[in-house]
User: What shape does this take?
Amino acid sequence: MDLSQSLEIASSTDPGMVRSHNEDSIAADPANGLVVLADGMGGYNAGEVASGMATTVITTEMQQLLAKVKPYEVDPETNKVLAARLVREQVLKANASIYHAAQSQPQYAGMGTTLVVCLFYDNKALVAHLGDSRLYRMREGTLKQITRDHSLLQEQIDSGLITPEQAKHAQHKNLVTKALGIDPTVEPEIREYETRPGDLYLLCSDGLCDMVEDGDISMALEALGANLKLAAQQLVQMANDNGGKDNVSVILVRVLREYPAARGVVGKFLGWLK
Assistant: This one.
């Protein structure tokens, strides 16, 4: 099922005002309803390699798989739909690729990357993430953070050591507790959400949310939401205007209409009518 008529996708990425090169990587496959964002870390250029490997491995492998199986098909092993298993396996494959490269090539030692993957299917969004890159959802004028950061700062907030307000001014904001490629195995956090027509989803690296308050992000999306490309560019510009201390990347996905899975003869017929 081609989702390019049901989803509108726009993106923007920039090195920021301080760094000389961009270690973020973004990818989108509108037909398959797949978007991926990664924020690399490591020595000179190593973060760029890690994030690029993550987006390339996951999008390439998912494209090949989705040509053969559908995410809403039931997995006979678990009796659940295949979507979560498909995404998880490709995340683990990307982790192994990055970890092996880091172990075998000294210039890449210690490299890794954050990750947010969204697979839209059957009026749902399956989300897998690692680290402090985020997914937000704008629904009926309200912006909500969907993912929870895998970071030392978030753990300190959860344990009551600091308040969310104090966290905004804390040192060592970017110490993540989970990332892709750092360890031989990793378990991404995977959640699934119902989507609605009109929903607007924002994937972003911490270069946006560290530099721009959620309220300002919300206002920009409200004001410019009719033009997604312009909205994406404006969010990046806002981060740069506020100092641009990090690379900044955003992907915006708007749900234009429902996209139910076409199951069986009746389902396929209904799909053709859409």
The first helix runs from residue 46 to 66. The chain has one domain: 7-148+177-273. Confidence is low (pLDDT under 50) at residues 265-274. The radius of gyration is 18 Å.
